[in-house]
Amino acid sequence: MKKILIVDDEPNIVMSLEYTFKKNNFEVFIARDGQEALDILEKQLPDLIILDVMMPMVDGFATLEEIKKDSRLQHCKVIFLSAKNKQKNIDKGLALGADLYVVKPFSIKKLVEQVNELIQ
């Protein structure tokens, strides 16, 4: 079973993504901010991380910088899912090593397709 970590502080997004990915046979882990995500990553090695940019404590950009320092997570794909839709933010996310940058609002169906393409 593929593992996915969803990192977002918006409860409605977390609930809909968690439901959808569980329905698509993923083991789902949830973090509400970057620090919680890093704590989960101490114990779990997901195949993919969906990461919001604007979060309390540690934002998505700083979280990704930490993820990229961890050699255990080199196989892990990262998708930014953010309302920050300016090109400079998208460029920064991709420059930090994200595999994809998806802007909110988004299509859950399309996101599932993109996740499956990245981790097949």
From TrEMBL:
Name this protein carries in UniProt: Response regulator
Top-rank lineage group of the source organism: Bacteria
Organism: Flavobacterium flavipigmentatum
InterPro entries attached to this UniProt entry: Bact_response_regulator (IPR050595), CheY-like_superfamily (IPR011006), Sig_transdc_resp-reg_receiver (IPR001789)
Tagged with keyword Transcription: yes
Pfam family, one: Response_reg
Record keywords, A-Z: DNA-binding, Phosphoprotein, Transcription, Transcription regulation, Two-component regulatory system
Modified sites of kind 4-aspartylphosphate: 52
Annotated GO MF terms: DNA binding
Start and end residues of each Response regulatory domain: 3-119
GO biological process: phosphorelay signal transduction system
